[in-house]
Amino acid sequence: MNVTWRPPSQLNGELTGYKVVFEHRLDNGTWLSRQVMVCSPQVTLTGLDISSRYKIKVAASTRKGFSPYSEIVDGGK
Protein backbone atom coordinates (compact mmCIF):
# COMPACT_ATOMS: atom_id res chain seq x y z
CA MET A 1 0.00 0.00 0.00
CA ASN A 2 1.39 3.41 -0.95
CA VAL A 3 0.88 6.14 1.65
CA THR A 4 1.74 9.83 1.13
CA TRP A 5 1.23 12.97 3.22
CA ARG A 6 2.17 16.63 3.34
CA PRO A 7 4.96 17.72 5.70
CA PRO A 8 3.71 19.78 8.66
CA SER A 9 3.73 23.55 8.18
CA GLN A 10 5.26 24.20 11.62
CA LEU A 11 7.90 22.15 13.38
CA ASN A 12 9.69 22.33 16.71
CA GLY A 13 13.16 22.02 15.17
CA GLU A 14 14.67 20.54 12.01
CA LEU A 15 12.70 17.67 10.45
CA THR A 16 14.53 14.34 10.83
CA GLY A 17 11.87 11.95 9.53
CA TYR A 18 8.43 10.49 10.10
CA LYS A 19 6.95 7.70 12.19
CA VAL A 20 4.18 5.84 10.35
CA VAL A 21 1.93 3.62 12.48
CA PHE A 22 -0.42 1.15 10.81
CA GLU A 23 -2.71 -1.29 12.54
CA HIS A 24 -5.54 -3.68 11.82
CA ARG A 25 -7.95 -5.82 13.79
CA LEU A 26 -7.25 -9.54 13.95
CA ASP A 27 -9.97 -12.19 13.76
CA ASN A 28 -9.92 -12.55 17.56
CA GLY A 29 -10.72 -8.82 17.98
CA THR A 30 -7.29 -7.63 19.11
CA TRP A 31 -5.33 -4.99 17.21
CA LEU A 32 -1.95 -5.63 15.58
CA SER A 33 0.11 -2.46 15.38
CA ARG A 34 3.36 -1.92 13.48
CA GLN A 35 5.44 1.16 12.78
CA VAL A 36 8.15 2.27 10.39
CA MET A 37 10.46 5.28 10.33
CA VAL A 38 11.02 7.01 6.99
CA CYS A 39 12.80 10.15 5.80
CA SER A 40 10.43 11.28 3.03
CA PRO A 41 6.67 12.05 3.11
CA GLN A 42 5.78 8.74 1.48
CA VAL A 43 6.13 5.03 2.17
CA THR A 44 5.12 1.74 0.62
CA LEU A 45 3.79 -0.58 3.32
CA THR A 46 4.45 -4.24 2.50
CA GLY A 47 3.47 -7.55 4.05
CA LEU A 48 -0.11 -6.43 4.63
CA ASP A 49 -3.12 -8.72 4.80
CA ILE A 50 -4.97 -8.04 1.55
CA SER A 51 -8.38 -8.73 3.12
CA SER A 52 -7.92 -6.26 6.00
CA ARG A 53 -8.60 -2.57 6.45
CA TYR A 54 -5.83 -0.60 8.10
CA LYS A 55 -5.80 2.49 10.28
CA ILE A 56 -2.80 4.70 9.52
CA LYS A 57 -1.37 7.74 11.31
CA VAL A 58 1.86 9.74 10.90
CA ALA A 59 4.00 11.88 13.24
CA ALA A 60 6.88 14.14 12.21
CA SER A 61 10.19 13.72 14.03
CA THR A 62 12.73 16.36 15.06
CA ARG A 63 15.69 16.21 17.42
CA LYS A 64 13.31 17.52 20.09
CA GLY A 65 10.82 14.66 19.67
CA PHE A 66 7.68 13.81 17.73
CA SER A 67 4.80 16.01 16.65
CA PRO A 68 1.25 15.00 17.50
CA TYR A 69 -0.06 12.25 15.21
CA SER A 70 -2.05 13.10 12.12
CA GLU A 71 -5.71 12.23 11.96
CA ILE A 72 -6.21 8.50 11.51
CA VAL A 73 -7.09 7.44 7.98
CA ASP A 74 -8.42 4.11 6.72
CA GLY A 75 -6.69 2.19 3.97
CA GLY A 76 -6.76 -1.17 2.27
CA LYS A 77 -9.43 -3.65 1.22
Q: Which percent range describes the beta-strand content?
A: over 45%
Q: What is the CA-based Rg, rounded?
A: 13 Å
Beta-strand segment tally: 7
Order of helices and strands: EEEEEEE
Net shape: elongated
Please mark out the parts with pLDDT under 50 across 5 or more consecutive residues, or reply none: none
End-to-end gap:
10 Å
CATH superfamily: Immunoglobulins
CATH topology-level name: Immunoglobulin-like
Derived from helix and strand composition plus strand pairing, the structural class reads mainly beta
| Count of discrete domains | 1
Q: Please name the CATH architecture.
A: Sandwich
Mind telling me the CATH class?
Answer: Mainly Beta
Q: Return the average pLDDT rounded to an integer.
A: 91
Count of alpha/pi helices: 0
- Describe the sheet with the most strands: 5 strands, antiparallel
- Helical content stands at under 10%
Which properties best describe this structure?
5-stranded antiparallel β-sheet, two-stranded antiparallel ribbon, elongated, 0% helix, Immunoglobulin-like, 77 residues, mainly beta
Structural description of this entry:
The structure is a single chain. The protein has no helices and seven strands. With 77 residues, the chain is mostly beta strands. The protein has one domain: Sandwich (Immunoglobulin-like), CATH 2.60.40.10. β2 and β3 form a beta hairpin. The mean pLDDT is 91.
